Amino acid sequence: MKECQAILKSDDHTSRSSTNSLFTIRTVRYGECQKNQAANVGGYAVDGCREFIPCADEGSNGALTCAACGCHRNFHRREVETEIVVRRSMENGQQ
User: Fold this and answer.
1) Which sequence ranges form a coiled-coil region, renumbered to this chain (predicted)?
2) Residue 34 domain-assigned?
3) Alpha-carbon distance 66 to 53, whole Å?
């Protein structure tokens, strides 16, 4: 499952004829399950679930439960990719 978040920052103090916009795009992916299934007997064993698959649509009760292993999303490894994009716009419509 992937989630995307975009953050926009504007820098207007550089020049009156141009505007710099800085976009930070974060993509979040939840990988393999790391829940220790044998913790109650003092061992260590994971179930082999390779990727978080939500049981239901985003915003509903089942969105945080994995359809493959039944664990909460917090047991899955969180991988974040960050991309920074700078866009310079001129007042007369040029970029």
Assistant:
1) none
2) yes
3) 5
Does 75 reside within a domain?
yes
With beta carbons less than 8 A apart as the criterion, state whether 64 and 52 touch: no
Is the pLDDT at 95 greater than 90, yes or no? no
The answer to whether the CB of 53 falls within 8 A of the CB of 66 is: yes
Q: What is the pTM of this model?
A: 0.65
38: containing domain? 2-90
Residue 50 located in a structural domain: yes
Written as six digits, the tokens of 38 are 């044998």
Of 8-12, 26-30, 81-85, which range is least confident?
8-12
**Where do the H-state alpha helices sit in the chain?**
none
Is 69 inside a domain boundary?
yes
**Tally of domains in the chain:** 1
Residues 70 and 78: their CA atoms lie apart, in Å, by 17
